[in-house]
Amino acid sequence: MIVVRNFLVKCVLTLVVLGSLLARSVLAQQAAPGGAGEPKRYELGGITVSGARYLDPNTLIGLTGLRVGDAITVPGEEIGKSIRKLWAQGILGDVSVTIARIEGNKIFLDYNLKERPRLSKFTFTGIKKSQTEDLTKKITLIRGKVVTDALLNNTRTQVRKFFVNKGYLDAKVNILQVADSSLSNSVALRIDVDKGSKVRIHDIAFEGNNAFTDRKLKGKLKKTKERKPYKFLTAGKFQRNEYEEDKKKLLEFYNAEGYRDATIVSDTLVRDKEGLALRIRVDEGPKYYFRHITWSGNYLYDDKTLANVLGIKPGSPYSKEILDKRLNYNPTGQDISSLYLNDGYLFFTIDPVETKVEGDSIDIEMRLSEGVQAHIKDINIAGNTKTSDHVLRRTLRTLPGDKFNRELLIRSQREIATLGYFDPEKIGINPVPNPVDGTVDINYTVVEKPSDQVTLSGGWGGYAGFIGTVGLVFNNFSLRKAGTLRNWTPVPSGDGQRLALNLQANGVQYQAYSLSFTEPWLGGRRPNSFSFSLNHSIQRAGTSLDASTSSFIKVNSATVGLGRQLRVPDDYFTLSNSLSVSQYQTQNYALLPGFATGYATNITFNTTLARNSIDNPTYTRRGSSLSLSVNLTPPYSLLNPNHPNTSQLIEFHKWIFDASWFTPIVGKLVLNTRAHFGYLGNYNSNRTIGPFERFKMGGAGLGYNGGGNFLVGTDYVGLRGYDDPNSTFAIPTAQNNQSGGIAFNKYVLEMRYPVSLNPAATVYVLAFAEAGNSYDSYTNYNPYKLYRSAGVGARVFMSAFGLLGFDFGHGFDSVVPPVGTAVGTKQDPNHFHFIIGQQIR
């Protein structure tokens, strides 16, 4: 309404934003100055903002899109458009426009605004603390954000979806806005959740399936499972996205079995009093078979050679999955593509064409285009922010000028992963072909992960109690950069060398110090390793520090080693040699039968032949690790019949064989099978074998100090489910009054499944069955007399701390305790084992 009084015109025009047409309609109903009621053109004389308490008026005026001096029509589109622009920001609850005044041909507008409140905090009610934490991470509520209807609806949807995915299909979510008196124009959201009861799938049934049973088809639904009383570990949740993926897997299964026309006709989800019932109707169609397979376009290899590599015989069930695998990539054998791609034919293509379908038989023509051989032009590496380029390049099997080779690309990826400096799940290889000049560039991408460790290892060693290890391990050290101060951040790194400092102790009774250094590429041209280590340890039988009366054993040792990679039988083999010198001093040390006081010297030459083809040292899926290690001392007793006692100049020959195989079962589930054998012998049959370098088996394999070669070179071999060595019910050769065995054998079956492959914390669970024993003489050796056990466990690999393990084992066989054990003392067949550090055996 326009009121004219004393030549002062006041016009109040309220516009509710319902779109430009509504704005035009509202303005059209106002009487123009002079009462004509027709739209009139004005020059915009000014804009003011009222009602804005926290928003900047100048910014709001700028958002309208109007400027002083603009020509506008009243009523007209310009004002409606400006209101829509303000409304689109989502920060206002209401917008209205008032004509403040009109001076001649100039009009002055006032925008009256109502601001929306901002979010100060939010809380949940009706749910657990853990669920609150999970939801806080998932929903997109940000403190200080304007509370809009869209924000409330989105939050409500996200919260409900969270619980629906957990099986709470009846979950209800209500959001209340509560004014926050501590902050101006702010509200707190109280999100009330009523989860209701879980609704599970209690039955899955198939219709139309004749070739396969319901049970077989249910097994192909990986995520959609029915909950039964005997399936207490099955969630029975229904999630639409996972169910759609399961339907694809079901059809892939049918296709792989020859039913290429199989379809899902219908699927119905019924809600009843027991929960959800899923009904799936399938049309299997006929089963097809391969008949004639012909080849065209092949010049390098004849039809017979290609057919042998393909390995599909006429009459085999038709399977597109198997056909694709045999043509493109077969992880367990050879395929047609590798035949060409491993010989440089990067531009090779093959197209299987169904030329005839007759009854249940299908004829296939393989149409090949072999192309020309491609040579590698450039090698590019990105992502190595810490590790030097040359450390990566020296591991690659693909070099500029070489023919393209897919097998060597995969091998290069494996070599990069085994360095341990990069996330093995994110190593990228991208060949970029250059068809014009017949070359290819290889682009490698890596993501660095922490590789240095604060190492912790420990175990309960019976007599010695708990012994822990604290140390620093720099796995990517650089001695070359150590001379420059700016490289100490905190230590020079990037050249792939390893520096380790360790302290082991349980107080006064046992202490050990060690320093080791390894250069894996001595000279930088070939993978010839160089290593050295220094060790000092002391073990006291009591806590006395009096050198004249205390009982102790001291060990000082030094080792230097050289190793190299072999080319025959293949380049997975390595040969390493080392020479170590150890000096032992004992005083009244009764724990070593036959050698209580005196000095002993051990000069040992070690040679180890090993083959390692595992794909990932953190969580291995496939490959194997084999090693044969031989330790030899000089044969003093053969060279000199008057050779002193073996406890003074130690002589022995020691053989250890370790084998570990990794086999993928299904998905990420991996079977690890291991076998370990050890044998300690002497050169002179007339001499007894001394107390040094023996084997003790049992427990977590940590022994006294959390590792092997403790004190007198004893090798500690784990056997879960039984007591640690030197305990009352330890395996007989590992009991307190025994030096250890001179032979052992051990067998392990272990199923592993990853929970998380995050490089910051890789976690996997395992179930194991193992058996082993150690023997005090050759006459008592019996490979069938084994102590058996089984159990479950978990491993956590953290970059900063290494491998942490926790196992529960049950021993099936009884152990005879030593003479003098209190009557009534019983063996506990159940044991928990805590492991810190990688265990070899």
From TrEMBL:
Q: Which Gene3D superfamilies match?
A: membrane protein fhac, membrane protein fhac: a member of the omp85/tpsb transporter family
Q: Which InterPro entries match?
A: BamA/TamA_POTRA, D15-like, OM_assembly_BamA, POTRA
Biological process terms from the Gene Ontology for this record are: membrane assembly
Q: Name one GO cellular component term.
A: cell outer membrane
Q: May I ask which residue range the UniProt record assigns to the signal sequence?
A: 1-28
Q: Spell out the subcellular localization from the entry.
A: Membrane
Q: Does the keyword Membrane apply?
A: yes
Q: Where is the POTRA domain?
A: 42-116, 374-449
Q: Out of the domains of life, which is the source? A: Bacteria
Q: Which UniProt keywords apply?
A: Cell outer membrane, Membrane, Signal, Transmembrane, Transmembrane beta strand
NCBIfam families xref list: OM_YaeT
What is the protein named? Answer: Outer membrane protein assembly factor BamA
In its UniProt entry, the species of origin is given as Hymenobacter sedentarius
